[in-house]
């Protein structure tokens, strides 16, 4: 594996780029693995990386029905933040941000973690109350988050319209300066390269059709498009399709899958310095390093596995953006797309053991899984390796829906993740 | 020097039009695009590329153009970047600017990147800029961001308006070239609604570039005008400047019509663009094909362009793109470009074809025109700084590339053949099938009711396109039950052709160093694609994302197929094994404003106002938004701030009477034989035995057992309930009710009707409320005995038929008068007049909040947050213990919901008398380190009330068992101590609710 650095780049520039090697091999399945991870997104590849790096478990395969990073990892709007209300969420997402800050160096792959700040806008009294509650809770939890007046919001994000005559005037905002964005593809590729370097097999275009169990109920392996593969442990991290995969092991998950759409504008020179989220009007926006405005929509109203998405929701999303940022009205949409997100009743994730011995699941990230990638991958790997949860993901069980010990961020704040 | 050819083109020479390009005046004609007008001046240089800032000119003539992107401006606020010069029609006064250059288009310092070409290979930024650790965000990223981007964003608010319309039709035909026109003729005159759209300023497609053709003996352009007249007469709606941007479920097509960008003056109130939402029974996609560039070193120099586009510039705009062009091709079609340009006076330097054998008639015609022909040749380089000046060509035998020779030229017209335009087809999740003979993807199955016609199915030539347009349209008509025969067409001087496909052209140089561009705008070369494959990117999606091939503003129209061919070659696979990336809407970049349509400014969302809102406005109300409603928050008298006004309103209501507009409360009429059973199952409280004429406070939980909504429910008669909800919860509650009724209890005989906007609701509260109201209600004696608290009646109030409720959200004697909505203001003014003797006070939501908090009444969503059970809220009394079932019953029995230590609603009084901040967190030990263990938070806090000191409500762990204990609220600057008390601060005995006691 060629190390990435400026010297190697220069050397290869001079020799016609002859020195670069493949970042991960195209593996074919072996007969048996210690751990099979279903789903080669950032979470699954990251879990494989940490299994190999931190737990010495290298006889691992990551299997995906498509190309790695092709699900929600490669379709999201890359917002990273940790100003969550509840202690459990704050710890998990802050753990992720800690890992984000060093991820490029950790992986020797520039994932472009950009601490440009995430500003969440308040448009009504209820928003103000909710954000104030978040800011106080974050402060006592040691999580960065502070209140900005409308003018301070405008200073931080000049394209913002803070006119009192707006349909929903900006009443202020909550700013997490440590938050930001990262390059989504690079996260998947960096983890894939790091995992492959440590011996993990990455098997693409190979759908897992069923999880098989032994007579004693424990996990036996997976049926795939390329035949049965035996495994001591199976870890499922398949986002919108997790529930259907888990069903084959007779594990029913409290998940609903929805289409979620996003879009980008044509590229322009830097105009938008940070990330802005406005839950009241449903606008989420940042500008990519390439210059495109990256805009997220809300989920479609109905559960579906279709990735086409509808026009009306996009019309609403764009209207919301031009409401908050009227100067973008003449910008043009370049491309829009959809993904399938899996949503739990309390809108928080599940990173957990399951009733099936040797079967683990990491799912339910809804619209906010990208930001958790390193934290989720790290704690999921721990859970799989030690057969017990890391203290950080211990509250994120499947059990909580039976006991009622929920971590209900959405209910608490009416805030999208 | 003019390159305009007299007698050619469809421009109107009687209408010269001046515009500016980078501040210089340029003259063109009506019918020109910016690109054709600049080319007519001999100016090919129109832009700089994304990464290397290489000088670029137009490579195409249509919406697929990747290079010639410009800023366009009409007036203040009317600027847009990245406009395709090939699509922007001239208008008087149009200001255009080139992009991505500094200081000028001709001399751009950014072009130093070009020298470092080998350094900026695919994915270079993933491999460096990692140290020092914090430099990415502070140093590298700002540098990269500034270098990236293309044009500049608008910075002013857009003064233009945008519109949207819905349309239903029987047949929608996308593309008004020969096949689309033939399809429209086939469908016309049958009583069907037929719509034909084209993105260009006029219909015709290929016919506009091929005037030589004769259709059924008629010259192409004459046939075009008579056909359009015929279609118009037959009622076909022909829409130009209209782009079908996306194909959605169930034959739903989004289309954007550009209405004013081509006009010198914009008529008043004309929208700039209009979004059409079309539901078509059948769709005919007749979008034609796109010409492929050839991939060779230097294929991006200004003057190198697609042969078909050169033909378009000549025949449609009368512009010769070069006087000494050379043609480089692997397809027959470019030979005709050579002949057309030669016919217009160009000295065609050579036709260079990669093929060893070419049709004899083409060779004969070249010979007749004295055009030198070089077969079995490749191109290995171009030269020229801002404009191509020569092409280097080399003989190829087998895999040997011989030494090259230079051909001097001022333009290179290239063709790598054609690829069907299948973007919209792909939006349908339609499958593509590789055709080995045509070496291209063709459409296969689609789940939608749609057919593809003409070049979109790989049929070249006008005759084939016409015939297929008719045949495919007939297939669509068959599906509509309109059987018939497809019309046939005979075309003379047609130009069907064949060709071969190439990856990058063979070269005698080191291919790894060639600047052979595949994606022009994003500066992706064949070398980049091969490097991506070498680095393990095997999926075409990975190749795309790693190199950014196909991600430019042309969305791969120029680059996807060439990129695929090269990637497939590098992978050692066939094209269908590699596959294409998914085409995404919109077909071409589309103005945000067109999506937003009417939903801008005050129309972004409707502002819901009550019938009494105007009175509030006249009386100086300050508003707050609550959902889509605007509600009067308080009524300041002169000089009062919110606190002073609210204090006054609170005191007046507690001492005499206050009047409040409660019309925004959600109202749902629940009617039917099973109405009582339904309400009883939805709400936690028992409702079966509630007598008509009585109301009851209802708590609504989700199936998880947490409070979702609340409101007073009145039983009007045995089979009729008037349910009220919170203002923000109305739609949610109705949806939830419908969900249960339709999916869980379809056996219940119940109808649900939203009546929120059918009733105006006025609340009267205070010790004098009954006295004020009684004279206006002659038919009902308002005494404690006859009309006690929680009664309701249908009775006239001030002569208006009303639903009168005896309820209170303040702790005072209270009435809510519901009258037909339009009579709300009349009643309000009557009550206002009648109340003058009691110094009646109008109050807003803020006073309402304070008064209810003093009485310990919750606001759902403020004192609860979706994690609070009725028991947590101290409202276990509202849960029917003997009920067989209700929504949330099992949820609230879960172990954690009945465990000790849950957060419970309590009152708080601060020890120092200060007001707490809503949302502030509560701890037991204020001296612990961060992260602190938080046991709750302040949900409501007020100091304008009548208690004599600030009060607060809070959710605190085990709060109901902590009465009298002290807790702490750590603020950034200090810690506040507070005592836990009851949530009821005023009149715990409920004496003030009684009419007798108050009187």
TrEMBL record, chain A:
Subcellular location: Cytoplasm
Cofactor: FMN; FAD
GO cellular component, one term: cytoplasm
Gene3D superfamilies on file: D-Amino Acid Oxidase, subunit A, domain 2, FAD/NAD(P)-binding domain
Rhodanese domain mapped to chain residues: 35-79
Annotated keywords: Cytoplasm, FAD, Flavoprotein, FMN, Nucleotide-binding, Oxidoreductase
Enzyme nomenclature, EC number: 1.5.3.24
MF terms (GO), sorted A to Z: nucleotide binding; sarcosine oxidase activity
Domain of life: Bacteria
One GO term (biological process): tetrahydrofolate metabolic process
Catalytic activity: sarcosine + (6S)-5,6,7,8-tetrahydrofolate + O2 = (6R)-5,10-methylene-5,6,7,8-tetrahydrofolate + glycine + H2O2; sarcosine + O2 + H2O = formaldehyde + glycine + H2O2
One family name in Pfam for this protein: DAO
Recorded family membership: Belongs to the SoxB family.
Name assigned to this protein: Sarcosine oxidase subunit beta
Originating species: Thalassococcus halodurans
Automatic annotation (TrEMBL), chain B:
Gene Ontology BP terms: tetrahydrofolate metabolic process
Aminomethyltransferase C-terminal domain: residues covered: 903-987
InterPro entries membership: 2Fe-2S-bd_N, BFD-like_2Fe2S-bd_dom_sf, FAD/NAD-bd_sf, FAD/NAD-binding_dom, GcvT/YgfZ/DmdA, GcvT/YgfZ_C, GcvT_C, GCVT_N
Keywords, sorted A to Z: Oxidoreductase
Domain of life: Bacteria
Residue intervals of the GCVT N-terminal domain: 614-883
Domain called FAD/NAD(P)-binding: residue spans: 170-434
GO MF term set: sarcosine oxidase activity
UniProt cross-references to Gene3D superfamilies, sorted A to Z: 2Fe-2S iron-sulphur cluster binding domain, sarcosine oxidase, alpha subunit, N-terminal domain (3.10.20.440), BFD-like [2Fe-2S]-binding domain (1.10.10.1100), FAD/NAD(P)-binding domain (3.50.50.60), Probable tRNA modification gtpase trme, domain 1 (3.30.1360.120)
Domain SoxA A3 span(s) in chain numbering: 515-597
PANTHER family: AMINOMETHYLTRANSFERASE, AMINOMETHYLTRANSFERASE, MITOCHONDRIAL
Family: Belongs to the GcvT family.
Annotated protein name in UniProt: Sarcosine oxidase subunit alpha
Organism: Thalassococcus halodurans
